[in-house]
């Protein structure tokens, strides 16, 4: 990481073309990955990466140059390249005085990955593998992966902000393949957090592995999903993919400002049923999408996006906040030094309501209960979204009956939010890597058990 | 130190420290991208990156480490780390490295024009892309983004068995997404193309495709659930090919997670289907002289007239099956070990024109875009994706349709290919002509 004087010098070069704002983001990342497949430890990969990106904003245009040569001459060259690509009317700023920023929240990392012996990490992977295989003889393959990342960042900008931070993230995944009579099905579970090795301590590897294994086996005997429009109950443990796709992406300020979101121009308007409140919160302790500072140096925050059905705020990075004259919300994130920051979600969820989950299921005559969601995608302009269902059951006369497989749910964001009829008093989280503009960032999302009046179930039955 | 020198140094040092087999993989790349919107530059990005991946095999156990810092200290540390990682993985007699090849194909994958073209001209190209989309129709009212990007890269692979290769390549591409509006209805369309030669990039064509797609979708309606024949243009068909590909990996077969396990010599697709992977394909965006571990790239016929011929192999999977690597060790970054992946994979074109493909369909669905393709399960082969497109009536494309889902198993889908068009087109590493399929379930109202 660089000293104050050097950072100031680089920022001055970045602004010599007359840009309005400049920042430099330095990053060092150390990662470890252990994977087990075919009943043996197959891969242990370790790596170290470092690099820096210099950004210059001039009017509405952004110049970005990055390098993984961290020598002062190379960084000055990157700043020079960026200064040439974004020129403006401002006089070059010479008196940048950097002051260290403080976060609004702090997180405790109990066992830092570098003090945990590799043997211990290998052990949790082996235990996960063993637990999954013990569930059923129809299990033909188990993949268990453990990874940890230590990312140190330094960010300095021409407003005088200087922040240094360290993020430790740990992830544990179990993928199970079961086969019988020519049918192959899979189960998948993932655990991840802004946390150290404590994330996988105790019996967590076993519990996660057993859940993934049971899911794969259960799906072998599942019936093909029905097709057509029907009421859908999403259990809290299903994760929050629906809210991430149906609403989250459309509330990212860049898309909203470019009129590429169905939620453009709807601030203060009703966009969801009155019982729906949606929050994006980067400050929740140790969640996968949490951090102290975003990748532009803004402290993470809790932002209410939709309050009792009314649209209250979009999610901003520095560039879009400037355009709307809005305060920074702490949503400026990037995959690495090789990417410029853009508005992204952190931990996004529907706030819990009043109804008991059992009561919600009992209210459905004929419908679908989603127990586990997979990935999804949205066209923010039209609001049309899909998400994958990896575990689901039919609900008949208020009772959960047979398991079904192979379904995707399709709907339209604002329509689905308006058709949320009941919101449970529980809350369940899921984790994932969210992709946008070729950048992946860790996020989590959550929801209580909810009832949506109608979605299209895309099955084959 | 020059790349090749550094790679040799790594190999020598690893051997000194007890790595029986060692391989150094160096990647260096330079990239440029510009994004424009409504005739103004929105962002410009320029970058340089290098990285080194070190793979060692100690008594049959493999270890791996990488670093982006090529100074002596971090490289030494990475060598030691790779060896120490190898001490904790399982022994496997098939963990070997390839021997040098007698002959390496000559491929023309470097276009000096990409580096030489001034930034201004590249910006202009991105602007032209966007303009072509707007010019297509006045109902194209907004652009999400139009972009031009290029990459020039250098790969060096040196191993302790004598492999010692390096090569340089480049590619460029452009894309645009736009929004069309009419009577309060908003629809999107996009176009993209990636090519090896700067002169082969045609902004007018890409832009027009985006405009055309957005306008065609205006006034889209929903349809009721039904089973109808499906037609997919190359862009959509290549996405479905992508779901089938993991099943063609020999590693997936060996590990019991392939749909195509045990099916060599079986009819796995319709009789007209011939599927080829060609790592040295002239003009192929993924063409290269050698694969990610230095094995010569070449042509592999995977499915011939519907019959499964072989799987894709790297050195490890080939050793395990007692066969030769097909040159499909894929290694897009220096951060990982070589896995198995396709290079330029395509379905051979037939003789039928797109119009003739549609001709005898009384009711059908012509899919122009899918949503959620990455949610398809490549292990079970089950997919259910959101789709938009045009409804086919009496052999003609009629009104636009959106908000429906199509679901099937990928093998069933390929068994159900009824006709293959003559219009083969590549999108990045995948190529396909227009395809017509037997009826599958379309879920709607």
Protein architecture, described:
The complex is a heterodimer of chains A (461) and B (445). Chain A has 3 domains: 4-30 and 47-100, no CATH class; 113-152 and 164-222, PmbA/TldD fold; 227-458, no CATH class. In chain A, 20% of the residues lie in helices and 42% in strands. Chain A contains 9 helices and 23 strands. In chain A, strands 1, 2, 3, 4, 5, 6 and 7 form a 7-stranded mixed sheet that branches. In chain A, strands 12-11-10-15-22-21 form a 6-stranded mixed sheet, with helices on one face. In chain A, strand 2 and strand 3 (61-67) form a beta hairpin. The termini of chain A are far apart. Chain B is α+β, with helices and mostly antiparallel strands and 445 residues long. Chain B is built from 10 helices and 20 strands. In chain B, the strands form 4 sheets. In chain B, strands 3-2-1-4-5-6 form a 6-stranded antiparallel sheet. Chain B has a 6-stranded mixed sheet with strand order 10-9-8-13-19-18, with helices on one face. In chain B, a hairpin with a 2-residue loop joins strand 5 (164-182) and strand 6. In chain B, helix 4 packs parallel to helix 5 (203-216). Chain B is globular, with a radius of gyration of 24 Å.
Give keywords.
A: 461 residues, alpha+beta, PmbA/TldD fold, 7-stranded mixed β-sheet, 6-stranded mixed β-sheet, 9 helices, 42% strand, B: 445 residues, 6-stranded antiparallel β-sheet, 10 helices
What's the Cα radius of gyration of chain B?
A: 24 Å
Q: Tell the overall outline of chain B.
A: globular
Helix content of chain A: 10-25%
Distance between the termini of chain B: 65 Å
Query: N-to-C SSE series of chain B?
Result: HEEEHHHEEEHEHHEEEHEEEHEEEHEEEE
Structural class by SSE content of chain A = alpha+beta
Helical content band of chain B: 10-25%
Structural class, from helix and strand content of chain B?
Answer: alpha+beta
**Overall residue-averaged pLDDT value of chain A:** 94
Strand content of chain A: 35-45%
Number of domains of chain B: 2
Q: Give the strand content of chain B.
A: 35-45%
Give the termini distance of chain A in whole angstroms.
Answer: 58 Å
Could you report the average pLDDT of chain B, rounded to the nearest whole number?
A: 96
Greatest chain-chain contact: A-B, 74 and 75 residues
Oligomer: heterodimer
SS summary, helix count of chain B: 10
**Main sheet: strands, sense, barrel of chain B:** 6 strands, antiparallel
């Amino acid at each position: 990481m660089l000293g104050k004087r050097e950072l100031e010098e680089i920022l001055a070069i970045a602004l010599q073309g007359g840009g309005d704002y400049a920042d430099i983001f330095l990053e060092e990342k150390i990662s470890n990955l252990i994977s087990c497949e075919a009943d043996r430890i197959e891969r242990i990969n370790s790596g170290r990466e470092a690099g820096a990106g210099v950004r210059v904003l001039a009017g509405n245009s952004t110049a970005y140059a990055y390098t993984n040569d961290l020598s002062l001459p190379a960084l000055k060259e990157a700043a020079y390249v960026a200064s040439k690509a974004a020129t403006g009317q401002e006089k070059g700023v010479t008196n940048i005085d950097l002051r260290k920023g403080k976060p609004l929240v702090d997180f405790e990392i109990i066992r830092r990955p570098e003090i945990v012996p590799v043997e211990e990490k290998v052990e949790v992977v082996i235990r996960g593998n063993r637990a999954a295989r013990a569930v059923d003889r129809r299990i033909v393959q188990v993949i268990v992966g453990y990874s940890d990342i230590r990312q140190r960042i330094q960010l300095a900008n021409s407003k005088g902000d200087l922040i240094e931070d360290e993020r430790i993230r740990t992830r544990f995944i179990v993928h199970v393949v079961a086969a019988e009579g020519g049918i192959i099905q899979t189960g998948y579970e993932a655990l991840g957090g802004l946390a150290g090795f404590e994330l996988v301590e105790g019996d967590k590897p076993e519990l996660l592995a057993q859940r993934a294994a049971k899911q794969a086996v259960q799906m072998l005997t599942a019936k093909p999903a029905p097709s057509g429009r029907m009421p859908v109950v999403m259990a809290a443990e299903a994760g929050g993919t629906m809210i991430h796709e149906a609403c989250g992406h459309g509330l990212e300020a860049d898309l909203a400002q470019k009129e590429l979101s169905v939620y453009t121009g709807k601030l203060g308007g009703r966009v969801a049923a009155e019982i729906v409140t949606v929050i994006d919160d980067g400050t929740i302790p140790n969640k996968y999408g949490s951090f102290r500072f975003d990748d532009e140096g803004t402290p993470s925050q809790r932002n209410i996006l939709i309050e009792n059905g009314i649209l209250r705020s979009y999610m901003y990075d520095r560039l879009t906040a400037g355009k709307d004259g809005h305060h920074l919300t702490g949503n400026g994130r990037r995959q690495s030094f090789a990417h410029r920051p853009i508005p992204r979600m952190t931990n996004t969820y529907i706030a819990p309501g009043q109804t008991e989950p059992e009561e919600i299921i009992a209210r459905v005559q004929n419908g679908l209960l989603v127990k586990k969601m997979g990935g999804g995608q949205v066209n923010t302009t039209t609001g049309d979204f899909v998400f994958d269902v990896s575990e689901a059951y039919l609900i008949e006369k208020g009772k959960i009956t047979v398991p079904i497989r192979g379904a995707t749910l399709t709907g339209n964001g604002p329509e689905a939010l308006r058709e949320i009829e009941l919101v449970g008093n529980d809350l369940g989280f899921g984790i994932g890597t969210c992709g946008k503009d070729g950048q992946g960032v860790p996020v989590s999302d959550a929801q209580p058990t909810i009832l949506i009046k109608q979605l299209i179930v895309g099955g084959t039955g | 130190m020059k790349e090749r020198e550094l790679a040799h140094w790594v190999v020598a040092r690893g051997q000194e420290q007890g790595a029986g087999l060692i391989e150094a993989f160096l990647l260096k790349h330079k990239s440029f991208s510009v994004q424009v919107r409504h005739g103004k530059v929105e962002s410009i990005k320029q970058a340089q990156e290098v990285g080194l991946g070190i793979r060692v095999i100690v008594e049959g156990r493999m270890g791996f480490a990488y670093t982006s810092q090529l100074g002596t200290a971090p490289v030494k540390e990475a060598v030691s780390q790779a060896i120490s990682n190898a001490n904790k993985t399982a022994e496997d007699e098939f963990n070997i490295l390839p021997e040098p090849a007698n002959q390496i194909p000559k491929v023309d994958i470097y276009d000096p024009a990409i580096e030489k073209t001034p930034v201004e001209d590249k910006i202009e190209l991105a602007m032209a892309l966007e303009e072509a989309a707007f010019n297509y129709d006045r109902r194209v009212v907004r652009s999400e983004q139009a972009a031009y990007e290029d990459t020039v890269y250098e790969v060096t692979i040196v191993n302790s068995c004598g492999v010692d290769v390096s090569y340089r390549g480049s590619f460029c591409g452009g894309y645009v997404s736009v929004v069309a509006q009419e009577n309060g209805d908003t629809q999107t369309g996009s176009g993209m193309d990636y090519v090896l030669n700067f002169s082969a990039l045609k902004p007018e064509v890409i832009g027009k495709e985006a405009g055309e797609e957005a306008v065609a979708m205006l006034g889209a309606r929903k349809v009721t659930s039904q089973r109808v024949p499906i037609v997919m243009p190359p862009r959509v068909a290549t996405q479905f090919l992508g779901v089938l590909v993991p099943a063609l990996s020999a590693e997936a077969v060996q590990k019991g997670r392939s749909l195509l396990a045990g099916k060599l010599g079986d009819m796995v697709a319709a009789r007209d289907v011939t599927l080829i992977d060609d790592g040295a394909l002239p003009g192929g965006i993924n063409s290269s002289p050698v694969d990610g571990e230095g094995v010569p790239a070449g042509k592999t016929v995977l499915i011939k007239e519907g019959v499964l011929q072989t799987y894709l192999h790297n050195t490890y999977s080939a050793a395990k099956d007692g066969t030769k690597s097909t040159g499909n060790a894929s290694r897009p970054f220096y951060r990982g070990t070589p896995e198995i992946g396709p290079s330029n994979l395509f379905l051979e074109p037939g003789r039928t024109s797109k119009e003739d493909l549609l001709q005898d369909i009384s009711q059908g669905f012509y899919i122009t875009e899918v949503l959620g393709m990455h949610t398809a399960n490549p292990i079970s082969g089950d997919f259910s994706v959101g789709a938009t497109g045009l409804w086919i009536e009496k052999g003609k494309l009629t009104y636009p349709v959106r908000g429906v889902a199509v679901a099937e198993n990928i093998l069933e889908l390929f068994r159900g290919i009824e006709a293959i068009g003559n219009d083969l087109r590549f999108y990045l590493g995948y190529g396909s002509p227009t395809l017509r399929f037997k009826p599958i379930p379309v879920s709607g109202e």
